[in-house]
Amino acid sequence: MVLVRDVVELVEVTRVYPGGVRALDGVSVGFEKGTFTAVMGPSGSGKSTLLHCAAGLDLPTGGQVVLAGQDIGTLREPKLTAVRRAHVGFVFQSFNLVDSLSVWDNVLLPQRLAGTRPDQRWARELLERVGLAGRERARPGQLSGGQQQRVALARALAGRPEVIFGDEPTGALDLATGRAVLGLLRRFVDEVGATIVMVTHDPAAAAWADRVVFLADGRLAGELRSPSAEQVSRRMTELTR
Ligand SMILES: Nc1ncnc2c1ncn2[C@@H]1O[C@H](COP(=O)(O)OP(=O)(O)OP(=O)(O)O)[C@@H](O)[C@H]1O
Q1: What's the 51 CA to ligand 1 centre distance in angstroms?
Q2: Which pTM value belongs to this model?
Q3: Which residues, 6 or more positions from 114, have their beta carbon under 8 angstroms from its beta carbon?
Q4: PANTHER family, from UniProt (predicted)?
């Protein structure tokens, strides 16, 4: 028997915002270790809310989020932050690097904040893998957008998190640069067993994933395995009709 392990599992998750918007409405979905998942859906379908709840940046108003074996819905600050720092990496559309710190210090920052000893050998290997060996002393402002996102990727992986969440990680990049970043995400899944969950609007980006999960009106609206960009586009057209 093959033992499948979800590193993040949402069970009947509901998120009602103050004012009554039901952004998520009973969503149950798991993300398996060593896989790359894209989350897609029309604007307002709940993608960011799902990502934020799964990552412990927001708490559901109903249901459970199990991250690294813990029901994080029962945690409060500062424990929630501690769990997030220990188990989750992030890559954002806007890179979110600290401009006053070097590339090297940016990569090690999450571990320093978490109070764990940074694994410098791993950090060096990551910078090599993303093609930035030798740029450790540069400041983010001296790098291109694609290079900055590659630093953010190394930073997300440096603490060997259980899962990396990406919020439109290629949204601010041109086509070729975005493709290079997606290729790196794919390789980190295939070569080092990373688990990645990425929200995107771009069917071509989603096609790099093993699985695309669709949302519509805060509910799951099916999924595709090993999809082509065309299949993803077709499904999106159906959902927005
Ligand atoms: N802080 C908030 N307070 C109230 N309503 C919110 C809040 N954040 C999001 N919403 C609402 O919840 C619903 C889902 O929003 P969410 O941002 O998760 O969707 P999305 O699929 O990520 O959208 P987009 O593709 O446009 O980024 C929308 O109706 C949105 O207006």
Answers
A1: 11
A2: 0.94
A3: 82, 85, 86, 159
A4: ABC TRANSPORTER RELATED, IMPORT ATP-BINDING PROTEIN
